[in-house]
Structures are given as C-alpha cells and as structure tokens.
C-alpha cells in the first residue's frame, strides 16, 4: 500500500528480528570500510584489537612494519588468536604456539624442523586470511572485500574533510574519557536510527539533551551513503560552550561551534561534535539479530594551557559530561529495546516501518543504502 505524503515505508520488520536477514547483511559488512577502533590503541609494539565485521571476527595487530588485519582464526586448527578486546601480545596462537608475522605467514611452528618451516612459509593455505586495513583521522578502518574501494573514495571528499576537522579535537589529539562498552537488546539498525533523527528528543530526552539543542533548526545533507545533520545549539547551551572553550584555552574548531554536528559513516560509525569541543564517537556492532554492542567514547581537545586551575575545571566538566551522557545513552537504550520488543511481539515480519518526512529523511536514506548493499 502506498502511504500518503509526507509518509513513506522503510525496511520490513523482518530486517530487525530475523537471523536470516542478519546473515544477508554480511554482504554489507564485507564490502564497506568499517571503523573497528582507534589508532592510539595500537601505538605500542605488538598492540592488537579484536572486532567483528558482521559475523566475521577479525584481529588488527601492530607489527614492526605497521598495522595488519586478519580473520581471527589460526590456520592450523582454527583457534581464535586473540580473545581480549584490546591488549599487547605477539600474534601467537594460544593453542599450539604458531607464531605469525605481519604478512600472516607462519614465523615459528613448535616441534617443526627448520626445513619444514620454510615449506610452511611458502604454502598459502598455512597463512592467515589478510584483510585491508588503514589508519586515518585517528580511526582504524578494515575492509574484508577482495578488491576494496580505496578508503578516501569510500568516504568521499565532504565526509573525509569533516572527519579531518573533528579528528584533532578527538581521536587524533583529544583527551578521551567516559568510555563505555555495553550490549543493547536491540537490532543494530534500530540503535543507529536513534542517532539519525531529532524528533524523539523532546520525548526520550525531555529532561536531558532536549535543553542542549534547538531541534527546529536542523540541516541535513547526504554525502553518498554517509549522512550529516547540523543542529543549532540552544542559546543557553551555545553561551555555556563559548565560555568553557575560552576558559580551557581549547584550539579553534573548524566545525561551527554553535552547533551539534552529527555524522553517520555508513554503516555503523557515528561521530558528533558539540559546541566546537566535545567529540563523541559510537561504534555499533551486531552480535545477533536482537543484540548490538556499543563502544562509546567522549573526547575533549587538549587545552593550550595546562595550569592547575584549568585541570580542575576539566575534571569537574568531564565528570558532569560523563554523567549526563550515561543518562542520555540509558534513555536511548531503553527506547531501542522498546522498539525491538514491539517488533518481536507483533510477529508480523511483512510489516514495513513507517517514516515521516522530512524529519526522518536520514533514516529513509539509511534504509536505501542498506537495501542497495545487500
């Protein structure tokens, strides 16, 4: 049925509740560049991080010659090489001690004579499956495609420029605080969609984020599959951030300091900057059709002045921002889990999500990008 203006249909409910739908989305996770972590987590020798590209478990490892990314599976008996989220350890299988180099080839195999090791190193089947990896704007990106699109082309000029403007305040040179890693009982798309519109703010965040922004003053732009929304801060909030930036001696932001600017880097990395200073980054990873892992970090710029007074101000402000953000995330989590509960309880997989335009245009664009990708 065609809906009257200004309404339109989105994805079918099955896309949010069906394991088969999640399996079909693996094509999306295997073709896009996915943010899996932060470059600063991989600065140390032998530093690593593990992540998921949909159902594919991967490991990114710091080697002598840079970063390498592999499927997190030993070529010998299939054991996971690393199980911790982050750490510092050589790429050695904990089961039988096979050690791999930066190219994913076996460097040492216990109880194997040297001549056999040379043969093993020349045997492709005994190497790890290598994936494309890049570090850009303080973020670690991985792509599992056999012939990936260059990262800068995937991002496009406008999105790349926005990340370049935000990075010095956040992932590249900013000070992280309030990192949260939690699992929400909701489909990953519902979690992402909560970041793509502001019409829920007066209801879900009535006593929190609602006072920060002027939701009536919003501009949306689409850069390929990536989405940017710029919302003016309320006059009180803008004045507070101007005063705070001046007292802290933060560098001048290339992003309009009187706005909350939010970008979704398709499919699952969200970044926002508030008041030209506070950067928030969110990595959403599906763990099942009805569960999503969220890795959330907040950042403030490194102040130009590091006096005791400035440090005291920053401690007080970061504590308040962290507490406020945890409350906002709890509200978003409750809303997302209510959606998941409603879709599952209705047991109507053919039902299609209804969107109201133009307020939910970014969600409509997001749905279109998903359908094109799977």
What do you see in this structure?
The protein is α+β, with helices and mostly antiparallel strands and about 375 residues long. The protein is about 30% helix and about 30% strand. It contains 11 helices and 18 strands. The chain has helices spanning about 15, 20-25, 25-30, 115-120, 150-155, 155-165, 190-195, 200-205, 235-250, 310-345, 360-374; strands at about 5-10, 35-40, 45-55, 55-65, 65-70, 85-90, 100, 105-110, 130-135, 140-145, 175-185, 215-225, 225-235, 260-265, 270-275, 280-290, 290-300, 350-355. The strands form 4 sheets. The protein has a 7-stranded antiparallel beta sheet. β15 (about 270-275) and β16 form a beta hairpin. The chain is globular. The mean pLDDT is about 95.
Key terms for this structure?
374 residues, alpha+beta, seven-stranded antiparallel sheet, globular
Quaternary structure: single chain
What's the shape? globular
Unreliable runs, pLDDT <50, ≥5 residues? none
One letter per element, helices H and strands E, the order comes to: EHHHEEEEEEEHEEHHEHHEEHEEEEHEH
Whole-Å distance between the termini?
23 Å
Proportion of β residues? 25-35%
- Count of β-strands: 18
Biggest beta sheet summary: 7 strands, antiparallel
Mean pLDDT: 94
Structural class of the secondary structure composition? alpha+beta
Q: Rg to the nearest angstrom?
A: 22 Å
State the share of residues found in helices, binned by percent.
25-40%
């Amino acid at each position: 049925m065609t809906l009257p203006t200004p309404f339109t249909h989105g994805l079918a409910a099955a896309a949010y509740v069906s394991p088969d739908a999640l399996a079909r989305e693996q094509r999306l996770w295997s073709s896009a560049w996915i943010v899996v972590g932060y470059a600063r987590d991989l600065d140390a020798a032998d530093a690593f991080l593990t992540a998921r590209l949909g159902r594919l478990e991967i490991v990114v490892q710091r080697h002598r010659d840079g970063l390498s990314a592999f499927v997190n599976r030993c070529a010998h008996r299939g054991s996971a090489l690393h199980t911790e989220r982050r750490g510092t350890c050589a790429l050695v299988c904990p089961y039988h001690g096979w050690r791999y180099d930066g190219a994913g080839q076996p460097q040492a195999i216990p109880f194997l004579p040297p001549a056999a090791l040379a043969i093993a190193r020349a045997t492709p089947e005994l190497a790890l499956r290598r994936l494309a990896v890049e570090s850009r704007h303080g973020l670690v990106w991985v792509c599992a495609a056999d012939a990936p699109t260059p990262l800068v082309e995937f991002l496009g000029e406008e999105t790349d420029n926005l990340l370049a403007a935000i990075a010095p305040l956040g992932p590249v040179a900013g000070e992280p605080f309030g990192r949260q890693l939690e699992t929400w009982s909701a489909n990953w798309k519902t979690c992402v969609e909560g970041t793509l519109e502001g019409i829920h703010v007066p209801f879900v965040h009535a006593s929190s984020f609602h006072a920060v922004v002027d939701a009536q003053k919003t501009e949306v732009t689409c850069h390929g599959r990536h989405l940017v929304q710029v919302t003016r801060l309320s006059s009180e909030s803008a004045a507070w951030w101007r005063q705070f930036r001046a007292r802290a001696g933060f560098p001048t932001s290339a992003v309009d300091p009187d706005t909350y600017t939010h970008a979704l880097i398709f499919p699952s990395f969200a970044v926002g900057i508030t008041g030209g200073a506070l950067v928030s980054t969110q990595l959403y990873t599906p763990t099942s059709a009805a569960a999503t892992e969220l890795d959330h970090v907040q950042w403030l710029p490194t102040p130009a002045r590091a006096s005791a007074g400035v440090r005291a101000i920053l401690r007080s402000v970061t504590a308040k921002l962290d507490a406020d953000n945890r409350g906002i995330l709890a509200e978003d989590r409750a809303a997302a889990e209510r959606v998941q509960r409603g879709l599952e309880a209705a047991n109507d997989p053919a039902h299609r999500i209804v969107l109201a335009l133009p307020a939910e245009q970014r969600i409509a664009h997001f749905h279109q990008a998903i359908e094109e990708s799977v």
